[in-house]
Amino acid sequence: MSQPQQTEQVRLAQLGAYPFARLKTLLANHQANPDLLHIDAGAGEPRLPLPPFVAQTLANHLDGFSRYPSTNGNDILRSAIADWLKRRYDLVQIDPATQVLSANGTREALFAIAHALINPEAANKPFALMPNPMYQIYLGAAITAGARPYFMPCCRSNNFTPDLDSIPSEVWKNSAIIYVCSPSNPTGWIAQHAYFAKLIALADQYDFYIVSDECYSEIYSQQKPVGLLQVCATLGRHDYRRCLAMNSLSKRSALPGLRSGLIAGDAALLARFAKLRSYTGPATPLPLQHVAAAAWSDESHVEKHLTIYRQSLKSFFSAYGAGEVPAGSFFVWLPVADDEAFALAAYQQQSVTLLPGSYLAADDTRGNNPGRGYIRIALVDGVEKAAELGRRLKSVSI
Ligand SMILES: Cc1ncc(COP(=O)(O)O)c(C=O)c1O
């Protein structure tokens, strides 16, 4: 089942072009409507005003640019992260020295973690489970780490839930890790407490690791999303055995250019991850680690952002006139007749860039792609642009 003889090059060849590269190809040789100002709703890049503390904190720590930063994150940042995790998830304990690491954005961490956790075990545990559609890094990480991706389809028919009950026990037995994304990019699905509790029990039963991508945890419509470590804590599992959670300042604080995120949980797994990264070395510069510590310590900017995202969603749907407000994230996952044709038409007719849903999903063994027939719209430019997007997309015809 495993393919230990595969070279990196062969593994890389299994990966298709990244969704944004595919989008570029789709739109190449076509012209956006020149009469309208272009709106980029393709990338999930928050474009909100900079939180007020950023400039001053950076100015106070400029001398840090003359030192090598620690890859694991300095003590100030790791303590700020641990304090945030405690406050946000009611954790009784989380040790900043052993249960928390800084990440240079979660993208690299989501990728590297597969290499730290899967490689030694791929021979007898070949599967890496992931939702489908998914944040594409899970797929790239699994394949380049020598694992076999196992897709959990998330469709209208299962309320976009990566269904744990549908996984055969043979697959659980042969699984090294599972990626969970809650709130989900792109579907907006949110995992409930019972979902994580069941998954933790399965991880114990079948001996695999859970990687929970919680980057959109602070962006939600009504119910504040529960986190994996929070569920561990309610189960009295204060060592977070087999569990890792990731989060990021890119979405929470609208600081995607800061490149700062966190990974927290099982100390033994984090030690493996830290060892790998001591060789690959993706450190966040020291002055930026101080900005990150300030961002984890402040909730007022996060609350302001949440108000903007909620109003943006409301404005989009009232202008567009159809569709469902997602439970979490700032993405609209909109059903359309043909996602590629819609993206192209939106670009040509309305000067709007959108991501076809099929680019975010993999074909299953029968050739079905659960992202086909959906378009992902990122509401990242504030309330007025969200309403404008709703109006423009309403008149797209394919
Ligand atoms: C689900 C999900 N996870 C992780 C990331 C990575 O974010 P960053 O590397 O900026 O922390 C993104 C970015 O779009 C995302 O959508």
What does this structure look like?
The chain is of the alpha/beta class and 398 residues long. It folds into two domains: 8-50 and 301-394, Aspartate Aminotransferase, domain 1 (Alpha-Beta Complex), CATH 3.90.1150.10; 66-297, 3-Layer(aba) Sandwich (Aspartate Aminotransferase, domain 2), CATH 3.40.640. It starts with 7 loop residues before the first helix and ends with a helix. The chain has helices at residues 8-13, 19-27, 54-60, 75-89, 106-117, 137-144, 169-173, 193-206, 228-234, 249-252, 267-280, 286-296, 300-320, 339-350, 383-394; strands spanning 39-40, 100-103, 127-132, 148-153, 175-181, 209-213, 243-248, 261-265, 331-335, 352-353, 355-356, 374-378. The chain contains 15 helices and twelve strands. The structure holds pyridoxal-5'-phosphate. Residues 44, 105-107, 110, 135, 181, 185, 213, 215, 248, 250, 256, 261 line the site of pyridoxal-5'-phosphate.
Give the averaged pLDDT, no decimals: 95
Unreliable spans are none
Q: How would the global form be characterised?
A: globular
Radius of gyration: 21 Å
Please report the first level of CATH classification, the CATH class of the largest domain: Alpha Beta
From the helix content, strand content and strand pairing, which structural class follows? alpha/beta
CATH architecture of the largest domain: 3-Layer(aba) Sandwich
Q: Which range does the strand content fall in?
A: 5-15%
The bound ligands are: pyridoxal-5'-phosphate
**How many separate helices?**
15
